Amino acid sequence: MAKRIDVSGLHVYYGDFLAVADVSMTIEPRSVTAFIGSSGCGKSTFLRALNRMHEVTPGARAEGKVLLDDLDIYAPGVDPVMVRTEVGMVFQKANPFPTMSIYDNVIAGARLNNRRMSKSEADDLVEGSLRGANLWEEVKDRLNKPGAGLSGGQQQRLCIARATAVKPSVLLMDEPCSALDPISTLAIEDLIHELKEDYTIVIVTHNMQQAARVSDRTAFFNLSAPGKPGQLIEMGETNQIFTRPEKKETENYITGRFG
Amino acid sequence: MSTTTTQPPAPGPGMGSPRINLRSGTLPRRFPAALLASCAAVVAGVLLAFSSFGFLLWGVLTAVAYVVIAVTASARVEGGRKAKDRLVTSIVYMCFLLAMLPLASVLWTVFTNGMNRLDIYFLSVSMNGVLPSMDAGGAYHAIVGTLAITGMATLISVPIGVMTAVYLVEYAQGRMKQLLMFFVDVMTGIPSIVAGLFVVALWMVLFGPGHTNGAAGAIALAVLMIPVVVRSSEEMLRLVPQDLREAAYALGVPRWRTITKVVLPTSAAGLTTGIMLAIARVIGETAPLILTAGTSAVSINWNLFDGQMMNLPVFIYSQVRMGGAINYERAWAAALTLILVVMLLFFLARMIGGLFAPKAR
């Protein structure tokens, strides 16, 4: 189910502005890859380019290759909508659909895509996804209550359940814990550990302890000066990046001697 | 990870920290109410003593006396900032009352005059076979016409208006968007009589002279309604967080389904309110309906496409023009009916909006 991502020579533009320049990397399946770097260095932009979500912003475009196993998602004729069913996304702010119940939120992906399924299939999918997100025990008695009534951490796990319910092969997470308390953060981090059995996970984080805790590999992004495009500086095993970085910039960043 | 301990600096006697006084004098909590009551009483007494009592004079003098005394007392006891606060608070309240005065007065006048004639009989019979001066007849045919014409106008303008708003918010970019928004603004400014003339001319071209019917009125009202619906719907759709759209896109949901299943349901309550306001804006329109739906219908007519159609605003207008005492009574009763119809619609809209609104638990 999990797929490898091979990025080569990817440039991302907002109109004429080059936001991310020439990134090449390989993201291994069944592992967690963390993107770290200062704000505005293009790591979120790059993440969004991995499922063509950046195209939601008017004027945004990307050049280069992103291979999902052996399919180039930027090849002509590829439908971004189909790409997003393969590559799911979890956002910084939990965003359950306010008009829907917890149950409807989880199967929103299937329902909104008009997939036909029987009641028992839907029930199984909801229970499976919520169990997968470690949320089932907390919400099983109130599945028909609105998702907006849950706590912030629960809402974020609901969003993860919603993202996994469409059975993607890759899960992108854009700072999924930055609005959460330490307990909820821990719950999400545990969940990420479990999810990597089945998915390729990419997580953007500002919290370096978090990157060190959850990820197998870490990529450090930076920009040479404000207004310049963001670049991939270094990527390697998390352990190596945090203990023996090869580049001076990486060392400066992870030791906090930065700007 | 390092542990940090924080110790509050120990305050104590002998530390030499300057004493800061955080307290200030306060007027009693009931002071404003009590002062207002006594001002009103004293001013009334003085005015009566000079036997020149008038409600307007009484109100103005009471307000002035209250503001002067309250602000002076507050400045003495509480200090400058709170005195200013009391001054501005009083002014804001007075402005509110001033704004409410005409509204209350209109409602009161319509209510007292309208109640003379408003009864089940008035609401359930038409003017068919009733001479204008007879003590009989009612506004049923006008209520029917108002509901039919406004209903039809709503049916025409809501799909067009909401879809235009969806286009403006979700799809349009650059030049096209600016052009469209400009024309919507221009349309908002069309005088209602011009909308009526537009339909008269259109009917003349399509059907030849002498065709006045409810459908013509409905189209004239729709022309007036569309820009209002577009504007309010646009605002409501913009309030839907971009997060929700992205959440849907990230699930592989196409854009049109995101709009129909996420954006529109999320903003349904706001859209309903906007549509109700648009209805309220056109339900009292008179000029375009005089031109398009005619002024002489007296019988109940549910058919928008067949013959003249009376409605409440035109009914009021034509009754007033007849000028007899009974006609004035009918006009007032019809005015009250119109207000009640609008209030009923708003009540319904609130209920519908409440059903749609996103709930927290």
UniProtKB/TrEMBL annotation, chain A:
Single Gene Ontology MF annotation: phosphate transmembrane transporter activity
Record's keyword annotation contains Repeat: no
Keyword field: ATP-binding, Nucleotide-binding, Translocase, Transport
GO cellular component terms, semicolon-separated: membrane
SUPFAM superfamilies assigned: P-loop containing nucleoside triphosphate hydrolases
PANTHER family (UniProt xref): ABC TRANSPORTER I FAMILY MEMBER 17
Record's protein name: Phosphate ABC transporter ATP-binding protein
Lineage start: Bacteria, Bacillati, Actinomycetota, Actinomycetes, Streptosporangiales
UniProtKB/TrEMBL annotation, chain B:
Gene Ontology MF term list: phosphate transmembrane transporter activity
InterPro entries according to UniProt: MetI-like, MetI-like_sf, Phosphate_PstA, Phosphate_transprt_permease
Pfam families: BPD_transp_1
GO biological process assignments: phosphate ion transmembrane transport
Keyword flag Transmembrane helix: yes
Subcellular location: Cell membrane
UniProt protein name: Phosphate transport system permease protein PstA
Function: Part of the binding-protein-dependent transport system for phosphate; probably responsible for the translocation of the substrate across the membrane.
Keywords: Cell membrane, Membrane, Phosphate transport, Transmembrane, Transmembrane helix, Transport
Keyword Transport assigned: yes
Source species: Nocardiopsis sinuspersici
TM helices/strands, residue ranges: 31-50, 56-75, 87-111, 139-168, 180-206, 212-230, 262-283, 331-357
Family: Belongs to the binding-protein-dependent transport system permease family. CysTW subfamily.
GO cellular component: plasma membrane
Membrane topology reported for the UniProt record: Multi-pass membrane protein
Ranges where the ABC transmembrane type-1 domain occurs: 143-349
Entry-linked NCBIfam families: 3a0107s02c
